[in-house]
């Protein structure tokens, strides 16, 4: 949970599409899009011997 909280609190989200910089550059610049931030989080979790992998999906929320 500490790793997730650090990424959430210290990495700025940029609303761009596709992975642009990867985990290393995201860590260096402390900013990235959703794919870059996910890549960084997975890399940090794996470095801490916590199994992590990508999951991709769509969330549908009714208007009402």
Give a brief rundown of this model.
Helix content is 48%, strand content 6%.
Describe this protein's structure.
- This protein is mainly α.
- It is built from three helices and two strands.
- A two-stranded parallel sheet has the order 1-2.
- Helix 2 links the parallel strand 1 and strand 2 (31-32).
- The radius of gyration is 13 Å and the shape is globular.
**Amino- and carboxy-terminal Cα gap:** 33 Å
Low-confidence stretches: none
Instruction: Kindly report the spatial arrangement of strands forming the biggest sheet.
Output: 1-2
Radius of gyration from the alpha-carbon trace, in angstroms:
13 Å
Largest β sheet strand count, sense and barrel closure = 2 strands, parallel
Topology (SSEs and partners):
Blueprint: H1 2-10, E1 12-13, H2 22-29, E2 31-32, H3 34-47
Helix pairs in contact: 2-3
